Amino acid sequence: MKVIGFNASPRKSGNTAALVQTVLEGAESRGAEVRLVNLNELRMKGCQACQGCKKKLGHCVQKDDLSPILEELKSCDAVVLGTPVYWWHVSSQIKAMTDRFYCYILEGVDPKTGEPTYETAFPSGKKFVIVTSRGDEEKATLFPELYTYLFEWLKMVPTALGASSIEFVNHFGSMNERDSAQKNADLVSRARSVGASLV
Question: What is the pTM of this model?
Fold first, then answer.
């Protein structure tokens, strides 16, 4: 079994990175082959809306560090997406990557019925883990409705890719302390357990 994890925080040793790594360690403890990708280290662009991927669905035509990873994703059994929460949403790094998931999907209209059509080149049935870390406590007092939207959006991404399961590991109240998650023994234990359950 192959599990790939993405740290979408610019911090390589912050809370998001630590939790993604812990999920991967849990999977590795059960025999999985794991790999961690720090998105901030990649040379990558967001989607250029060139529509080149529609000529060969599932293949992004951009020549950067992310394109081969988008190919690799199709052969993984489980995916861990980790992001800090900035301004009530995901980091720019993970948004750039998820925009590129557009290469997997073709939407259209059936000319005979007028009904919308949906085709995907991403193999369905993969397990997803979503890791988030934010400074605010739970329950949030400022704009809590934006956090509700955020988690719905995060759930939509793997759903659109045909995920067989979606598990969340959420870290609240870091107050920008880089090792806040590591100090939370229950959270670390849960992250490891979620990783082990992928196998």
Answer: 0.95
